[in-house]
Amino acid sequence: MTVLRLGTRRSALATAQSQQVADAVAATTGVRVELVPIVSEGDVSRASLSSLGGTGVFATRLREALRAGECDFLVHSLKDLPTAQPDDLVIAATPVRADPRDVAITRDGAPLHELGAATVGTGSPRRVAQVRRRAPRAEVRDIRGNVDSRLQRVVDGELDAVILAAAGLLRLGADPMGLHMEALGLAEWPTAPGQGALAVETRADADPELLTALAALDDLPTRLAVTAERAVLAGFEAGCSAPVGVHADVGADHLRIRAIVYALDGSTRVADDSVHELPDADSLDGLRIRAAGYSRAQGSGNGADAADGEDPVARSVQAGSSVAHRLLDHGAADLVPRESS
Asked: Which residues belong to the active site?
């Protein structure tokens, strides 16, 4: 390998996080990594994400470029990926996760629940439902645009608050423009499955040398947590913009999953908080998961490939699936729109 090409969306956030991965791959391999900007439908359309088919719209064009040989690997925000993994592509690494929380950005620092008859901007159905529960008098406006443009709308008084991902602000080193940030706790405000995590994706038949280089970036606790979160979503057969909040914490020998499914108007919710066993810490410390094996487990979403009881990735799939089944049994099926085919 003399040079590697990393496909990325053109947005400032996508470029920033892709450059971080490019630098890490270059440091590991000694091979120069160049960014290949790719424009997706989600980048050029101003329509709401829900009308475009959810955030998976960002991944489609990138994957087309990867399959066509325009680049060697991709970096996605993991929350943007549909839960079904294509057979010909593999998530070769999930680097250490950044802060998975949402933050509420306001001019005066008032907590979200004290805003009253305010205007709050977000383009996420999950966040819409959460805002309507936390601040029932607020008017929620559907917004698109980059981080700076959203912050500017608060500065200008067009909006009283916006809800953003903490990880995006961190990776951009965004200037808060004198605004105030309220971190929203994950226990009562769980975020999108995989939020804060990146997915490094390449072709399943990629050069083994490339797969090895990318696998060096993998963080097992991150992989276990996001696998469980995405298995919850897969259990609903719901799109990645569904009103579902999930967060998983990995301990020495266990996985705790908190999940809440919301009605779109925020009027009701169904919740689950459970702990699941994992192999002990010594097993985890010595474990190295093959990327192809992870792809199969992640793509199944139902634990069908989880034959090995000591495989913590398979255990994470089973745990997430069991959470989804309990939520469905308790009425979540009536709240979550099914993913369109």
From this structure: 79-80, 126-127, 144, 150, 240
